[in-house]
Design brief:
Elements (H helix, E strand, L loop, with lengths): L14 H8 L4 E4 L6 H4 L7 E5 L3 H12 L1 H8 L5 H12 L2 H10 L6 H13 L19 H7 L20 H11 L3 E4 L9 H4 L5 E5 L19 H12 L5 E8 L9 E4 L18 E5 L17
Parallel strand pairs: 1-2, 1-4, 2-3, 4-5
Antiparallel strand pairs: 5-7, 6-7
C-alpha cells in the first residue's frame, strides 16, 4: 500500500529495508509522518502504531481518510484544471492557521473537503509550497518558490498520485483501503517529542521508531511548509541518548556526514530525486540511513535501491 500523493523526501523506496532491520515489533512510532511511506510499507500490521506531523494539511488528510474516506474521495475526484489549482491554493493557504488550531483542540475534528482538495492539488502542483499560507510573505513580498508556484502549470505527464492514469478511476477504493489500514493508528499533530515520551514508548514492549526529520544541511533548499535547520540535530541527540535501550530499534535518516553515530550501521541509498533529476540533482545520492545497535541485521538488501 502506498500513499495517494507524492511527497518530498518520501522513503517508500527503502521501506522494505527498514522493516528488515526492525523486524516484528509491538509498537511503531513515526514522528515525522509525511506520506506515511514506512508505515504503509509494513509487511505485517502491529498492535500499536503512532504517527505525527507538524503540518496541519497532512494531519487533516490522514485523519479525514481514517474517518470519512468516501467524502475525501468525493472531493478529490476532479479533473486537473490550472485555474482551479491556483484558486484552491490561495483559498486553502488562507485557512491553514484556523485548521491547525481546530485540529489541536478537537480530537474529532477533520475537514474532508479540505483533505480532498489538498491531496488533489498536492498531485497537480509542481513545487514545494502547495496550500502554503500567505503569512510566509516577508516585507509584503512572497518567497521565490511561492512566486514560481503561482505562475506554474500543473503536471502534464502521466499524472502524479491520485491524478495518475493508473489510479484516478479507483479513488473510492484507494481511500477505503487506507481507512481500513489506519483504523487503529493514532494520528498526532505537533512537535516530534510528544510521541517520543515515556508513555508512548515504555509501556508497549519492543518498539521501532523511524526518524525522518528535515535534514540539517546547508545545501538543502527549503522544501517543507514547517521548516527547521536544527530539529535533526536534536533528533540525533535523542537517538544517541536512547541507543542502548534494548526495547528500542531506531532508524535515523539524513545526508552523508550529517550525523556522527558510532556503533550504528550506516546504509547508503539513492533517492528517486523527482524533478530535481532534470537539473542534475546530486543530493539524491547522498541519502543515508543509520540503524541503532539493537536493530536486526538483514539477510538481503534490495539491490536496485542502494549505492553499495
Amino acid at each position: 500500500m502506498i500513499a495517494p500523493f507524492t511527497y518530498f523526501g518520501g522513503k517508500r523506496r527503502i521501506a522494505e529495508l527498514v522493516w528488515q532491520r526492525f523486524g516484528p515489533v509491538n509498537n511503531f512510532v513515526e514522528p515525522f509522518a509525511g506520506s506515511l511511506a514506512v508505515l504503509l510499507g509494513r509487511p505485517k500490521y502491529g498492535s500499536i502504531e503512532t504517527v505525527n506531523d507538524l503540518n496541519g494539511w497532512i494531519t487533516n488528510f490522514w485523519r479525514a481518510v481514517k474517518m470519512a474516506p468516501d467524502l475525501v474521495a468525493k472531493h478529490c475526484d476532479r479533473p486537473v484544471n490550472e485555474i482551479d489549482m491556483h484558486a484552491i491554493h490561495e483559498y486553502l493557504g488562507q485557512r491553514l492557521d484556523d485548521l491547525e488550531g481546530r485540529l489541536r483542540h478537537d480530537p474529532y475534528f477533520f475537514d474532508a473537503e479540505f483533505a480532498g482538495w489538498w491531496v488533489w492539488g498536492q498531485c497537480c502542483w509542481i513545487g514545494d509550497d502547495w496550500a502554503s499560507p500567505q503569512s510566509k510573505a516577508k516585507n509584503g513580498k512572497l518567497p521565490a518558490t511561492h512566486r514560481k508556484g503561482v505562475g506554474a502549470r500543473p503536471h502534464l505527464g502521466r499524472g502524479s498520485g491520485i491524478n495518475s492514469v493508473e489510479r484516478r478511476t479507483d479513488l473510492d477504493k484507494i481511500m477505503q483501503d487506507l481507512a481500513a489500514r489506519l483504523r487503529f493508528t493514532r494520528i498526532c499533530c505537533g512537535d516530534w517529542t510528544r510521541v517520543c515520551s515515556y508513555s508512548t514508548l515504555d509501556f508497549h514492549g519492543l518498539t521501532a521508531i523511524f526518524f525522518d526529520p528535515p535534514y540539517a544541511v546547508k545545501n538543502r533548499a527549503d522544501c517543507y511548509m514547517k521548516e527547521s535547520r536544527t530539529v535533526a540535530i536534536d533528533v540525533a541527540k535523542w537517538c544517541r541518548e536512547n541507543e542502548n535501550n534494548p526495547k528500542l530499534r531506531i532508524a535515523l535518516c539524513g545526508y552523508e556526514g550529517e550525523h556522527d553515530m558510532p556503533g550504528w550501521d550506516c546504509v547508503a541509498w539513492s533517492a528517486d530525486g523527482g524533478y530535481g533529476n532534470k537539473s542534475g540533482n546530486q543530493n539524491r545520492h547522498l541519502e543515508r540511513i543509520w540503524f541503532s545497535p539493537h536493530c536486526l541485521k538483514p539477510v538481503t538488501e534490495p539491490k536496485a535501491q542502494f549505492l553499495f
